[in-house]
Amino acid sequence: MKLKKIASLFFLAVLALGLVACGGVAEEGAETTGGGATRSIEEIKKSGEIVIGVFGDKKPFGYMDEKGEFQGYDIALGDAVAKELGVTAKYVPVEAASRVEYLNANKIDLLLANFTVTDERREQVDFALPYMKVALGIVSPNGEITDVSQLADKTLIISKGTTAETYFTKNHPEVKLQKYDQYAEAYGALLDGRGDAMSTDNTEVLAWAVENPGFDVGVTSLGDVDYIAPAVRKGNAEMLEFVNGLVEKLYGEKFFTKAYEETLAPTYGDSAKAEDMVVEEKPADWK
């Protein structure tokens, strides 16, 4: 039986207190001190559940529906992980800026929070084989922003701890960034007109624009094409080997294409194709 019910307020409060005890919520990539031992596969099996960090507000990848149940593309993989282990999946909502801290502090066993692989992040976590391709996109009212140069005198909304923040900080310091902790807050700011555009993964802005009339993705691919992959705590060789073995098995079953059709296609419709996003074999350029 899958555990997909939203965590109680008490549980979230305990997590918040735990983060304070560790010195507060750090920016993504910040090194933290673990609050407990990394659990072995055997310990996870004996406990009857694996704790997985996911987004709770990033539809259609990881989100909670009106019943308080976790849904999305990342959740499909999380369910497959739990099934392979013979345990229940316990999902913990994380934010982009603090998801690495949750992993490093052993508050979760595995991170499936639509996590883009970068060299900087490889220094903080170990990535398993990827399951999606991604670049950055820019969404704006009526898709009026069609080139980065148009943002020179405008405000761009981003979420903290994302590849969008890193990309624009490094490559376009002339763009004024308005930063938010949560994706829901960032999209709310765009809807309210507090910024001129928003940038995050193209996979996400394409989906969001479909569900929000009056907005369109004027820049559909920005920066390098990267991969999204599961992450485990640095040095957790046992979990890394397990997840890699499972992902390779799922490649052979065309699992991710099926998951795309079930979780992403209803949102994207004709605006995207599975073959442009899904990974079904180890990439030739995978490090």
Automatic annotation (TrEMBL):
Keyword Calcium: no
Keywords, comma-separated and alphabetical: Signal, Transport
Gene Ontology process terms (BP): amino acid transport
InterPro entries xref list: Bact_solute-bind_prot3 (IPR051455), Solute-binding_3/MltF_N (IPR001638)
Source organism, top-level taxon: Bacteria
Residues of the signal peptide: 1-26
Coiled coil (residue ranges): none
Gene Ontology, cellular component aspect: extracellular region; outer membrane-bounded periplasmic space
Gene3D superfamilies for the chain: Periplasmic binding protein-like II
One Pfam family in the UniProt entry: SBP_bac_3
Ranges of residues in domain Solute-binding protein family 3/N-terminal: 49-267
Family to which the UniProt record says this protein belongs: Belongs to the bacterial solute-binding protein 3 family.
Name by which UniProt lists this protein: ABC transporter arginine-binding protein 2
